[in-house]
Amino acid sequence: MAIDTDTARRVAHLARIRVAEDDLPALATELSSVLAFMEQLSEVDTDGVEPMTAVSPMPLKRRDDVITDGDRQPDILANAPDAREGFMAVPKVVE
Amino acid sequence: MALNELTIAQARDLLAKGEVTSADLTEACLTAIESATTLNAVTTVTADKAREMAKAADARISAGDATAMTGIPLGIKDLFAVEDVPTQAASNILGGFKPRYESTVTRNLWASGAVMLGKLNMDEFAMGSSNESSAYGPAISPWREDGSDAAITPGGSSGGSAAAVAADLCLAATGTDTGGSIRQPAAFTGTVGLKPTYGRCSRWGIVAFASSLDQAGPMTKTVRDAAIMLGAMAGHDPMDSTSADLPVPDFEAALTGDIRGKKIGIPREYRVEGMSASVDTLWAEGTAKLRDAGAEVVDISLPHTKHALPTYYIIAPAEASSNLSRYDGVKYGHRATLSAGEGINDMYEKTRAEGFGPEVQRRVMLGAYVLSAGYYDAYYKKAQRVRALIKQDFEAVFADGVDAILAPATPSPAWQLGAMKSADPVEMYLQDVFTVTLNLAGLPGISVPAGLSSKGLPLGLQLIGRPFEEADLLNTAYALEQATGFSAKADKWWT
């Protein structure tokens, strides 16, 4: 399936990556070529095949629902680009 | 032989006899790293930390408390979180990030007494086959084509690890493999690269690319070293719910070199169009050598092989788009400068446009597309179904009694840096044709150096094993290593 400029714009927005309007046609062409390659899968008969959702057949481990870690506010904020008064700061979200 | 040229096994034996110290080994590696900046393999040197760790290792050896890895200087791929050491996954979006925690694999290695030399170059977020997507610029292979001084790619994504091991900047290195990122660079540099079974090594603290495919493994000079190092890296970890709660066997003890009666499968679908003649010849020679060593060679079929690449290039970007959504300019790394009036969505979009390189952007967008409403079933779910069929192909072959599968590691030798610049993305993706199948099926695989191309560049053969039977796989690889007797090294032009 070919991707048009509008779809490319939508995909860039979904991915939260800013793409300049002038670059959208090239992006659309590039994504289309990769998707054309993926179209090969349509020739595989997958009727009745369960999608593979786990690599190993083992059931996931369970553990008691208890707190095992915490009180690490300085560690968590240490790498934040803008940390103030114990919080990560972001541009105003609510008017 | 210079101390940095030793294998892990040789160094271990000399350390045990008291003939060298870890401090000596570590200094030899640090000196080699200093003289090899041209290769751009090492992105951060942790010299002080290395010297401290070497001192502690020497004390431990004197006290009679050593493991096989105690005192061994290692390089660590930039994908592994190492406490207080820059960890950037070779991406600008993680610029300045210093983790306040340690990945389980590196924690295991330090607990065994290994020494940290520094962080190694790679493709950005492990997305690439040539190291050229790195924010640090590409690592360069120590190998050159005969009669040429053009820079050659060490492969990717663990290209810095491969270059560092091949150039003797460290005794061994860690790598990660999502679609071939350990095995392909190992093949390109005449080194050994082992991708263990999915779940053998904990993924905790390794920057995530595609969580159902990622697996850490050793990159070493010999098969024996891979066996030793895997033993120190592996083990169950409650912090990774997909880590296997299985005992870690003594992999080195399995190396008898006796493969008589073993059944080796040769997959007919791996004879792909465009495979280089030297790779084809090498594969035939490797097959003959395993037969001479007493193995039974059988023709096998893995019918869904040709669909593995499109399956991989749907599943991996889909998982990447989820995993990389955490890079938002809030918690760590880069944040774009905003103009007056710009809000939080502008911050996300500008930060990610500035922080991610072109290949990462392409895959994140592709992933967002195949997961989006209306396309999820057609692409992502379809790929998951084909993935199940690919896994079943292998299960059928193993159920027929095949112990290991022999295939090339790559369709061609390494190429010159920049040679793929004008290629479209799909052309680069075709490089992974022999390696992605294992990641999709979760199987262990190892690349063993087996010969040189017509232009004098290394080529590797790949062995694929049954899940969690790395010990048996390593033994077959050991027999192949003995039979090929590969001993070529790159000329040291960079010092």
TrEMBL record, chain A:
Entry keyword annotation includes Nucleotide-binding: yes
Pfam families for the chain: GatC
Broad enzyme group: ligase
Reaction catalysis annotation: L-aspartyl-tRNA(Asn) + L-glutamine + ATP + H2O = L-asparaginyl-tRNA(Asn) + L-glutamate + ADP + phosphate + 2 H(+); L-glutamyl-tRNA(Gln) + L-glutamine + ATP + H2O = L-glutaminyl-tRNA(Gln) + L-glutamate + ADP + phosphate + H(+)
Comp. bias (Basic and acidic residues): 61-74
Record field: transmembrane: none
Top-rank lineage group of the source organism: Bacteria
GO molecular function, one term: asparaginyl-tRNA synthase (glutamine-hydrolyzing) activity
Record's keyword terms, sorted: ATP-binding, Ligase, Nucleotide-binding, Protein biosynthesis, Transferase
GO aspect biological process, one term: regulation of translational fidelity
Region of interest: Disordered: 48-78
EC number of this enzyme: 6.3.5.-
Assembly with partners or alone: Heterotrimer of A, B and C subunits.
NCBIfam families registered for this protein in UniProt: gatC
Family, per entry: Belongs to the GatC family.
Protein name per the record: Aspartyl/glutamyl-tRNA(Asn/Gln) amidotransferase subunit C
Taxonomic source organism: Pontivivens insulae
Gene this protein is translated from: gatC
UniProtKB/TrEMBL annotation, chain B:
Organism: Pontivivens insulae
One cellular-component annotation, GO: glutamyl-tRNA(Gln) amidotransferase complex
A biological-process GO annotation: translation
Keyword hit for Ligase: yes
Source taxonomy: Bacteria, Pseudomonadati, Pseudomonadota, Alphaproteobacteria, Rhodobacterales
Residues annotated as catalytic: 77 (charge relay system), 157 (charge relay system), 181 (acyl-ester intermediate)
Protein known as: Glutamyl-tRNA(Gln) amidotransferase subunit A
Gene this chain is encoded by: gatA
Family: Belongs to the amidase family. GatA subfamily.
Keyword RNA-binding: no
